[in-house]
Predict the structure.
Amino acid sequence: MERELVSIIIPAYNVSAYISRGIKSCIDQTYKKIEIIIVDDGSTDCTWDIICGWQESDSRIKAFRQENCGVSVSRNVGLKHSGGGVYSLPGRR
């Protein structure tokens, strides 16, 4: 039985203190057929740099950056790029 791909969408805005913990939590799940879509919503701290570092270390991570448009737009960008069943983590403001 082939397992279904699950897309996890993480909207991110100025969460440099928390983003690594959230990404690591997704990576460490026992279910491995996932893609992690992170949408940086115009962060002004080092969130984007941290996301890029994680993207380089795990091929399941897809990162996108946009001007600040809000969490709903960020989720929609993630949905547009998703390939599996989608579960969205709440954005942090």
The two ends are 40 Å apart (CA to CA). Residues 14 and 44 are 6 Å apart (CA to CA). The chain has three helices and four strands. Residues 47-57 form the longest helix (11 residues).
